[in-house]
Amino acid sequence: MPEIIKLLVVDDHTLFRRGIVSLLKEQPDFQVIGTADSGPTAVQLCRDIKPQVVLMDVHMPGGGGVDAVAALKQMPDVRVIMLTISNKDEDLLGALAAGADGYLLKSAEPDELCQAIRQVAAGQGVLSPEITARVMRAAAAQTPITSSSLSQRELDVLQELARGATTADIAATLVISENTVKTHVRR
């Protein structure tokens, strides 16, 4: 029996939220333990029910998802996937800077969403393929980063990433926090 992944679904559109919950209930390794319609409500609920993965929209009345991510990431073992229609760079970068573990577009296929949840629960990061392609094109257009512009610790983190290590694995290997690993990766 696979380990159960406890989920919180956060979206201000009731129909969409209920549809996602119905989809997730079909998976034997998922348990939806709560829903919310705003970022602040999600933060409060998260403190009480302690989900492993939070699926959250970026823009919601009463408090957006990006603002809530930083608060959620202060809680131990909470992973956050932004599930949104927004493919705007500022939303993506804001969510990742706040600590989001994934960024998926609502156009994702059901299997893609389920796989992303499993990956994030396992400590990996995920991006929608459309977002990944755009990030790669933007990165290719940038001036390359030379190893001399990176600290030894940043190089160590990148070497571990190249080996396929997860954020948690890198943190354990280098005896640093997962947030420090993410900071080095963002640099």
Structural topology:
Layout: E1 5-10, H1 14-25, E2 30-36, H2 39-49, E3 53-56, H3 65-72, E4 79-84, H4 89-98, E5 102-105, H5 110-121, E6 126-127, H6 129-141, H7 152-162, H8 167-174, H9 178-186
Parallel strand pairs: 1-2, 1-3, 3-4, 4-5, 5-6
Protein architecture, described:
This protein is an alpha/beta fold and 187 residues long. The chain folds into 2 domains: 134 residues, Response regulator (Rossmann fold, 3-Layer(aba) Sandwich), CATH 3.40.50.2300; 44 residues, Winged helix-like DNA-binding domain superfamily/Winged helix DNA-binding domain (Arc Repressor Mutant, subunit A, Orthogonal Bundle), CATH 1.10.10.10. Helix content is 50%, strand content 16%. It has 9 helices and 6 strands. It has a 6-stranded parallel beta sheet with strand order 2-1-3-4-5-6, with helices on both faces. Helix 2 packs parallel to helix 3, helix 3 packs parallel to helix 4 and helix 8 packs across helix 9. The longest helix is centred in the C-terminal third of the chain and has 13 residues. 33% of the residues are buried. The mean pLDDT is 88.
